[in-house]
Amino acid sequence: MNILDRFHVHARTSPTRLALATRDRIYTYGQAAEVVSRLAGALAALGVQRGDRVALMLPNTPEFIWSTYAAWKLGAVQVAINVMYKERETAHLLGDSGAKVVITAPEFLPIVLKVRDRLPELRHTIVVGSREGDLSYERLVEQALPWTECADMQPDDLAVIAYTSGTTGVPKGAMLTHGNFLFQLETYRTHFGMASDDHTITALPLFLLSIILMGPVFSHYLGSLAVLQHRFEAEEYAALIKRWRPTFLGASVPTMYYDLTQLPREKLDLSSVRVASFGGATMPVPLRREFEEKFGFRLTYAYGGTETTAHVTADPLDRPNKPESPGVPLPGRKVRIVDDENRPLPPGEVGEICSWGPMVMKGYWNLPDATAAALQDGWFHSGDMGYLDEDGFIYIVDRKQDVINRGGFKIFPIEIEKLLYEDPRVRECAVIGVPHPRLGEVPKAFIVLREGAQATPEEFINLTRSQLANYKALSEVEFRTELPKSPLLKILRRELRREALEKAAAGQGSGAPSPGKGTRT
């Protein structure tokens, strides 16, 4: 078995069928399979073998997809790097995964070049769109002999190490298998009733697990067309829908639907769409209703995470949904709510959300203790807080690890705090999410300076912009003389969040601080 088995079947039986379309490129299944085979041959010639890690630091281009498939064809493991990451974040992912090869683009090459000398296991850097210097992706594909065999994998064999973060703020690699992927793909096919004429469209970053899974990988599992946008922009997205008539808007977040509702009706024709889902963040009920009323079909709310190979629950399609709930467990999955002693709780009581099923990860890469804490008797402990109602619908009420959800991108406060603490002027700090009308939340820092130290909010905002991915950059800094603490002297972020919410409710803050905004109290 291999995730790519069906892709190769479609390439053999329907080589002229369209497999991928972007703004300026089109591939048939036959053409796509040829590129994948040649790239797999090139990687093999560089020494990539079964189980080796192949890292990708690429934007939304066909090369991201074909590189992933070439790795799987060899039985290697794909490691996707967020293209917004800076040097320190990129070095950690490449080093922790032990990647043998990284495939990148010219705009990200400077970051790779800065870190690769300290990574002894990283042997090769392949560059897409450049024929100078390092290995050229294009030359490799042109010159390589096709790799005709597709590795026969077991369900428990790794396909992806997908990095996520936990309470420590250190990114952890979730080990996801061929079995995990195939179980999810078959669930999507049966739950949504999809077939080879159901095309997908993808605009969010492919380095996000659920995006590549519900977009190109799902399309190529079905034998359908995957439409790929380089970066989400509402008008171009609408134009791609008009041209290619996709039926499935599966890899989406609420922010996208917000932007689509702002387009004039004549610019957005969604008559081809049968199913549209969203996840990654909650959607305000008024926005959901506005979209559904405007375009005449319902949105499907889903819940899951990296460690569960994306979705665990989704709105049922055979009965009414509940607007504030991401539905019920999908077939083959179980969900339960437990207390701090791991005892199941009855409907209506809030506790930690745990899930079970063939979609649950194998564990965390090289982190046995973290794996043991997260996986107990086969149940994945998500760290999310919620409850089940009497009908089995799940509700998310909080995030146990204080995660900030900025338009679907997860931000872990401790990662920003670690950076702030590197400045010798900072005595104490805490980062929380504050309300934002479009993005949901944006990060704000509360900082206590050392006695006699002087600083401006802009200095710390610019520090995060230069050292972290842009979406993690602080939107606001507030200086204080002290921070709320527990009897054990632990800084209480929840008290800061409560204050921020009270201010927003009282109209004292817009909830949408402009870049560089800072306050002192």
Descriptive report:
With 521 residues, the protein is α/β, with parallel strands linked by helices. Among the domains are: 153 residues, Rossmann fold; 117 residues, 2-Layer Sandwich (GMP Synthetase, Chain A, domain 3), CATH 3.30.300.30. The protein is 31% helix and 26% strand. It contains 15 helices and 28 strands. A 9-stranded mixed beta sheet has the order 2-1-11-10-12-13-14-15-16, with helices on both faces. Strands 4-3-5-6-7 form a 5-stranded parallel beta sheet, with helices on both faces. A hairpin with a 4-residue loop joins strand 1 and strand 2. Helix 2 crosses helix 3 and helix 10 crosses helix 11. It is globular, with a radius of gyration of 23 Å. The relative contact order is 0.08. About 1% of the residues have low confidence.
Which structural category fits the helices and strands? alpha/beta
**What is the CATH top level name of the domain at 1-153?**
Alpha Beta
According to CATH, the fold-level topology of the domain at 1-153 is: Rossmann fold
The dominant shape is globular
- Rg over alpha carbons: 23 Å
In spatial order, strands of the major sheet run: 2-1-11-10-12-13-14-15-16
Characterize the biggest β-sheet: 9 strands, mixed
Helical segment count: 15
- State the separation between the terminal residues, measured CA to CA: 61 Å
The appropriate CATH architecture of the domain at 1-153 is 3-Layer(aba) Sandwich
Share of residues in strands: 25-35%
Assembly annotation: single chain
Mean pLDDT figure? 91
Number of distinct beta strands? 28
Uncertain runs: 510-516
- Helix proportion of residues, in percent? 25-40%
